[in-house]
Each structure stands twice: as structure tokens, then as C-alpha cells.
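dude i think i finally got it to work??
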Amino acid sequence: MNSFLHCLAITFFSIFCLESTAFAQFSNPSGAQKTIAQQREDILKASNETLKKLYQVQPKAKGLIEKSAGYATFNNFGMKILIAGGGSGSGVAIKKDGGKPIFMNMAEVQAGLGIGIKSFQNVFIFETPAALNDFINSGWTFGGQVTAAAKYENNGDAYQDSVVVAPGVRMYQLTDSGIAAEITGKGTKYYKSTDLN
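look at this
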């Protein structure tokens, strides 16, 4: 019995080390502390890459963003270990009126069984300045899980693969295989970064 408990303890410790190492490599690949300017540059570069990826898999999203009041992109890295998991990420909100980029953070806490690693990018499109400003200044919490419809018949396929997550706010979620069929964001909070703005 003691040997079983010993093996179990070693297994839990190994999983914890794997989680810590993987997250550290993602959050700071160079292993060195980056300056605020470098962090901002990395986030803006990641944002451009996320938009490029979105336009490749859903070209009509470009038109939605061009007509919008603004948009925000986030890159997430999450792990689910046994009965609990979590993740964090960074992003930036861009106002189309020419205002400076607003750097933001995201954090999530998941519950449920399973072991896995997931990474994804979220793109929010704000139809009105009020929706964008509310997202930036008040923060926002994704309280549930929504399933994306293949099409919105009333609007045509311009909105294909996006989901309305709040009044005046649409969202795309990208994974390694393209646009996610199911938008997941349970327990995710988005808020302005105090360090990067």
C-alpha cells in the first residue's frame, strides 16, 4: 500500500513539473526577463499573426473588422490536469479611431476531469464604440460555453463561424486546426493590464 501511495505521489509531482515547465516555456520562451517594450512588441506581433490566420480560414472576417469600431485578439495557453486546470494569456484591443493599443490579460479557471494541453486564439469584434470601451474599461467575464452555428441565416455567411457573446460583440476562436466548431470560454476573465499600459 505504501508503495502504491509513493508511486501516486511521484505521478502527481511529474504532472505538476510538466505543467510548470510547459507554461514557463510558453510565457517566456527566451528564458530571460523581457522589457515592457519587448512584451508589447510580442503581443502586437502575435495579434497580427492571429488576424492573418483568421483571414486565411474565414476571409469575410476581414470585412467585419474593417467595418467595426475595433477589435481585440488574445493568445491563450491552458492546461487541464486531472480535476482542475487553468490558463492565462495576453492580448491587445485596437480602436479603429486611431487610439493607442490597449494591452490586456486573460485568465481562466476550468473544472472537470482530464489531462490535456490546449492553445487557442480569440478574436473579438466590436460593432460599437460603447461595446469596445466597456470591454476595455470594465473588463469582461465569459461565464458559460456557447456552441457556434454553422451559419446565421438572417445575416448570410458573412458571420459564419462567429458567435455573439455580448451585445455588439462577436467572437471567433481559432485552434491549430482552424476555427473552433465550439466556442469555449467558461470562467474566462478579460481585463486591462496594469503593467503594459
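The CA atoms of residues 2 and 8 lie 10 Å apart.
im so relieved honestly
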